[in-house]
Every structure is written in structure tokens, then in C-alpha cells.
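REVIEWER CHECKLIST
Item 1: Sequence provided? yes
Item 2: Single chain? yes
Item 3: Sequence as submitted:
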Amino acid sequence: MTYPLSGLKIVDLSQIYNGPYATYLLALGGADVIKIEPPGGESLRRRAAVGGAALPFAMLNGCKRSLVLNLKTPEGKAALKTLVSDADVIVENFAPGVMDRLELGADTLMALNPRLIYASSSGFGRDGPYSRYPAMDLTVQAMGGIIHTTGQPDQPPVKAGPAVADFFAGIHLYGAIVTALYERERTGAARRVEVAMQDAVYASLSSNLGLHWGGQGSEAPQRTGNRHGGMAESPYNVYPTADGYIAIICVGEAHWRSLAKVMDAEALADDPRFTTLKSRVAHMDLIDATVSDWTSRHATAEIFEKLMSAHVPSAPVRTLEEVVNDPNMHARGALTHIDHPEYGRIVVQQSPFCFDGVPRMPLTPSQPLGADMQAILAADLGYDDETIRRATTNQIGEE
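Item 4: Structure as written out by the authors:
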């Protein structure tokens, strides 16, 4: 069986979330991904000392080969250049300028291999006034407007729970890489591609920006809680139930009438205050109070079953434990159990991309640090033991 990216060689210098997720998607598309870490491993691997913090590394680095290189040594630099000489893509998400200071920047590596696509990601880009700002998911959420628009209107802003800036950037980085590969296939020309985390999250603010624009800027509410970010839908909220919470949204008149019928309150559908979307939005507080009064008197599962039967968009607010064991994702192969040699039996996500004609890529666990050292440096590159030691360890001889 041939996967869409079979035959591609990816040199992966990335760390934490955004780069490793992009390269994980490439690996599950069939590419051979060589993950290169410094002596001691990348910082996400080192989080293993803090409880379950090791799981993200295992989630993002399966189906990759593991190699250690010290890029501050001549031998480490030489090894990277040799690996890059016949690679298709190199991926890094260091701060702008780091690779150039190591004398391993895009110009240097692409000169060695004219077919090399050099892909990078950073918080704010390499050429703007923010290029030197340290960037993590939290700081990009803050700078990008996500934190300011998240939370209840009368409460301080809060960050989004998931690492949205990191993973939005990772998805965009994957898209940029595959786009560049497509161009190279058509024209033979390779190019450098870049994704800034700040750029990647902006479009997700579309509903909030609509409210901001239509509400004369600063006069518009900045945080809408669980209501629509543009305050343009009603009902649209998370409502309390007798045993939890349920999210309900009505995006058209049919949905609203169906909800009213399920609630045994069909008169609401013809109430002049609620007959149009505009009037419902104008009476949003009353709508939410009415729906909350009904939901709070019934169990979540009961409400969800009735709303599904009536084709009203809704969903129970699930716990992480429920999500990890989601029957739909497991049935489709989107989630699968693997036995990890370091972390035991864990649940790992597959690629969201499904390619007709081939099954989902069989998952292999993330490798122990440097597990493929001999296979890559000795067998593939022909390095002897002393050269391998000098390329992969600190100069004090410490691995």
C-alpha cells in the first residue's frame, strides 16, 4: 500500500507542539520523519518528570525515528547537513535567527540541496517588529486577542483551555509544507515557507470581529461567555441540566420551532418576541432564561436524545474521560489504544486526514531518545563510533 506522502524524507528539528504536530501529520501521511533532538531531549520530553505531562510527547511523536545531534558541535552540524542533502523538507520552530547563528539557516541548507523545502514556525514571524518576542501558546493567545475575548462579560479574561495557538499553527504549517511540495512537483522549484502562530489564530476571531466591527469598536461587548462570539445567534449557549450541562444552538427557524416543541412550549414559536432571529437576539436574556428553566429540570441524556430526534443541534458537555473513550472516535479509528514501552497503555489520536484506498497508518509509539542513532548515523551515513559520540553528546562527554 502506498500512502500519499510515501517516499518523502522529513528532517524534524521542531519541539513542543506546533512543529511536532505538523510533522506527525506528515508521518501519518506516509513520510519518513527523522526527529532530531539535542542531548538530553527536547523540552516536552523532559516534562515527563511532572506527572502526566509525558503524554503529549507520546501523542505527537509516534511513527517517527529518533536521533540526537548536538548542533553546536562541528560533527553535529556536519551530520545535519548530510541528512539534509537528500531530504525533501526540514522543519524547525526555533526563535527567528537561531538557525542562522548556528550557520544552519535556510540559505545554507537550501544551497546544499536545491530541492529542499525549508519550513519554519515562530510566534510572531521572522520579519516583523515582534520577531524577537518570546512566544508560547499563552503569550500568543494574549497578543492575538483570544484571551481578551474568552470568558464571561463581567469577569477577567481567561485563556482558551486547549493550546489553540500551537495547534492552529501546526495545522497551517502542515498545509504550507504540502503546498510547497505540490509546487515543487509541478515546477521543480523548492522554496522556504513560514507560519507565525499569531497569523494562524486571527481568522478564528471572525465572529468576535463581526461584533466588534458592527458594534463600533470598543463599545461592543468584548467577552460573550458561552454565547455566540458575534452575539448573532439565539438560543446559543451552554445550559444547566439536572446532572450537568448541554450546549444548544438554533441556526434557523426550523431549529427554533423544533426546540419549542421538544420543550412542550410551542406557543414560543409564534410569540412576536421570538419569531425571527433578529427578535430572538434582541430578547437573548429571556430566551436563555426560558431554555435554562427547561433544561435544569431534566437529565442531560434525556434532553440530548429528544433534541437529536428533533434534529436540533446540541451536545452534552463531556468530560475529558468521556472524550478519551468516545465511541464514535474509537469506532472510526480516530482514537486508538497503544501499548507504550515507557508510559503503558495510552490513547493516541490518529491523523484527522482519511485517505481513500489505504487504512489509517498503523501507529508506532514515540521512540526513546536517540533510539535510531545507530541505524541512521552508522548504517545510513557510515559514521564510526567516535564520530557519532562527538556529533551526539555535549563536549564534556555527557549524553
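Item 5: Key structural point noted by reviewer: Residues 169 and 354 are 21 Å apart (CA to CA).
Item 6: Recommendation: ____
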